[in-house]
Specification:
- There is one protein chain.
- With about 500 residues, this protein is α/β, with parallel strands linked by helices.
- The protein has 2 domains: about 1-245 and about 455-475, 3-Layer(aba) Sandwich (Aldehyde Dehydrogenase, Chain A, domain 1); about 250-435, Aldehyde Dehydrogenase, Chain A, domain 2.
- Helices cover about 40% and strands about 20% of the residues.
- A hairpin with a 2-residue loop joins strand 1 (about 1-5) and strand 2 (about 5-10).
- It is globular.
C-alpha cells in the first residue's frame, strides 16, 4: 500500500503486480500500482507539511534520523533477509547495505547540528555577512532496485535534515523493503506528510512526480536513458534535478601489481550483486606483460564461485533481478562473439537443478576485447567481464576515459608515480588505488562525470547541496547607508 499524509492506503483502481523472489520464482506478495492521482495526493500532502517541517530546528530534525538509525540497527538482520529475498544479492552484501543506511542516518543526523553555511568579513565597517542553507521544498525521489534501502537513505535523509518533505517512488521489484523502511519513519513519530510513499511504474508514477507543480526537486538513480528524459522534462519546468546514472567501470592492472590482490578486487567488483551495481567492474584493462597470468589466476577463482539463493551463507553469487534482466544479459553473449571477443568462461543462463527456478547467469569473462567492441563500451549490468590488453599506463587511462560514463575506476600498482598519475588523470567521480571499483563510504560524495550524472552528488556533505538553497544575509548595524563596492574605495 501507499503511505500518503500519514495513512496507509491502496491505489484507487486496485491494480497490483506480483513481488517475485528472483532466486526461486516464489511470489512474496503484491505491490500496488498507482496512478497520477496518488502522486497528486502525495505531493499536496508534502507541500502542506513542508513549511512546518522546515521550522522544526535542524538539530531536532536530525534527532529523528538518529531514532531511525536505531530502529534500522535493531532490525538489521530481518531487513537484510527481506532484501535478499526481493532482489537476490547474497545475505552478506544485504547486511552491508542495511548498515549503509544505518551509517547514513547517523551521519545526516549529525548534520542537523551543523548544516553549515559561511560567515565572512564584510568589506564595510559595522556590517555582518553570512550565508545559510534553506530547504528547496518538496523532493521527488525515484530510486532503483539494486540498492533499495542504501540509495533511498542517500536521498531521503539529507532531504529531511535540510527541511524538505518527500514523495518517494521506489522500484516495483523491491516494494516490501520500502514498506518496512517507511514503517520506521511512522514509528519514530515523523509528522504526517513529511515522507510519502507512492508505488508504481516509472512511466506513470515517475513521470507524474517529475511533472507535478508542487514538487520542486527531482532526484533520480537509474539508467542514463531515463535520466536524460527526466532532465529534459524537469528542465523545461525549471526544476532542480539530481541524476546518478550508468557506469562502465574499469580496473587497471599494471605489470608491477600484486596480482592476487587484483584478482580479489576483480572478483568482488565484477560478480558481487551479480554485477548489478552501477559501480561494478565490467572491464579489466591489464598490462600485456601480466595478462596471461592474471587470466589464469582469475579463472581458478571463478571456478570456486557458488551460484544460488543468497540466503545460503555459502553462496557467492545470487540471481539477477528478473527474467527481463536475464535475457538482456544473455543477448550480449552473441554481441560479444560476433565482435570477435574470446570467451574464457560462463556465457550461459544457469539451469541446473534448483537454479532453473530462478534467474541465474554464470560469471562470464571475455578476453582479447578491443576498445571499440560493444561489450567494452555499453553497460551490461550483469556478471560479465571484458579483459582489454594494453602496453602502457597512458593507453590504459585513455581507454578507461573514452567510454560515455565516468562513475568509478581503479588501479592496481605498487609504483607511486602510476598512483598519482591515475589519481589525476582518471576521468571518474570515484577512484580507487589497490582496491576494486566498489565500496564507497557514505561520508564522501558519490557520483560521476559525463553520462553518469549531471554534476550533483549523493552521500556526504555534497548531498546537502542537492537539497538546500543558499541564502546570503547582510546585517548592517552602522546606522547609515553604506554602498558596497562604492563606499569601500
Amino acid at each position: 500500500m501507499n503511505y500518503i499524509n500519514g495513512e496507509w492506503k491502496p491505489a484507487r483502481d486496485g491494480k497490483t503486480l506480483p513481488n517475485v523472489n528472483p532466486a526461486n520464482g516464489d511470489i512474496l506478495g503484491y505491490v500496488t500500482v498507482s496512478s497520477p492521482i496518488e502522486v497528486d495526493e502525495a505531493a499536496r500532502a508534502a507541500k502542506a507539511a513542508q513549511k512546518a517541517w522546515a521550522k522544526v530546528p535542524a538539530p531536532k530534525r536530525g534527532e529523528f534520523l538518529y531514532r531511525i538509525g536505531e530502529k534500522l540497527r535493531e532490525r538489521k538482520e530481518n531487513l537484510a533477509r527481506l532484501l535478499t529475498k526481493e532482489m537476490g544479492k547474497v545475505i552478506e552484501e544485504a547486511r552491508g547495505e542495511v548498515q549503509e543506511a544505518i551509517d547514513m542516518a547517523y551521519f545526516m543526523g549529525g548534520e542537523g547540528r551543523r548544516l553549515a553555511g559561511q560567515t565572512v568579513p564584510s568589506e564595510l565597517p559595522d556590517k555582518h555577512a553570512m550565508s545559510i542553507r534553506m530547504p528547496v521544498g518538496v523532493a521527488g525521489l525515484i530510486t532503483p532496485w539494486n540498492f533499495p534501502i542504501a540509495i533511498a537513505s542517500w536521498k531521503i535523509f539529507p532531504a529531511l535534515v535540510g527541511g524538505n518533505t518527500v514523495v518517494w517512488k521506489p522500484a516495483t521489484d523491491t516494494p516490501a523493503l520500502a514498506y518496512e523502511f517507511v514503517k520506521i519513519f511512522e514509528e519514530v513519530g515523523l509528522p504526517k506528510g513529511v515522507v510519502n510513499l507512492v508505488y508504481g511504474s516509472g512511466g506513470t508514477v515517475g513521470t507524474a512526480i517529475v511533472d507535478h507543480p508542487d514538487i520542486d526537486i527531482v532526484s533520480f538513480t537509474g539508467s542514463t536513458e531515463v535520466g536524460s528524459e527526466i532532465n529534459g522534462r524537469a528542465g523545461r519546468l525549471l526544476k532542480r534535478v539530481s541524476l546518478e546514472m550508468g557506469g562502465k567501470n574499469a580496473i587497471i592492472v599494471m605489470d608491477d601489481a600484486n596480482l592476487d590482490l587484483a584478482v580479489d578486487g576483480i572478483i568482488w567488483s565484477a560478480f558481487g550483486t551479480a554485477g548489478q551495481r552501477c559501480t561494478a567492474t565490467s572491464r579489466v584493462i591489464v598490462h600485456r606483460k601480466v595478462k596471461s597470468l592474471l587470466e589464469e589466476k582469475l579463472l581458478r577463482r571463478i571456478e570456486t564461485l557458488k551460484l544460488g539463493d543468497g540466503l545460503d551463507e555459502s553462496v557467492d553469487v545470487g540471481p539477477v533481478v528478473n527474467a527481463k534482466a536475464l535475457e538482456q544479459i544473455h543477448a550480449y553473449m552473441k554481441v560479444a562473439e560476433d565482435d570477435g571477443a574470446v570467451k574464457l568462461c560462463g556465457g550461459h543462463i544457469a539451469k541446473e537443478g534448483e537454479l532453473a527456478k530462478g534467474y541465474y547467469f554464470e560469471p562470464t569473462v571475455f578476453t582479447d576485447v578491443t576498445r571499440d567492441m560493444r561489450i567494452a563500451k555499453e553497460e551490461i549490468f550483469g556478471p560479465v567481464l571484458s579483459i582489454i590488453p594494453v602496453d602502457s599506463l597512458e593507453e590504459a587511462i585513455e581507454i578507461n576515459n573514452e567510454v560515455n560514463y565516468g562513475l568509478s575506476s581503479a588501479i592496481y600498482t605498487n609504483d607511486t608515480r602510476n598512483t598519482f598519475i591515475a589519481m589525476r588523470d582518471l576521468d571518474t567521480g570515484i577512484v580507487y588505488i589497490n582496491a576494486g571499483t566498489t565500496g564507497a563510504e557514505i561520508h564522501l560524495p558519490f557520483g560521476g562525470t559525463k553520462a553518469t550524472g549531471n554534476g550533483h552528488r549523493d552521500s556526504g556533505i555534497a548531498a546537502l547541496d542537492v537539497f538546500t538553497e543558499w541564502k546570503s544575509v547582510y546585517v548592517d548595524y552602522s546606522g547609515k547607508l553604506q554602498r558596497a563596492q562604492i563606499d569601500n574605495n
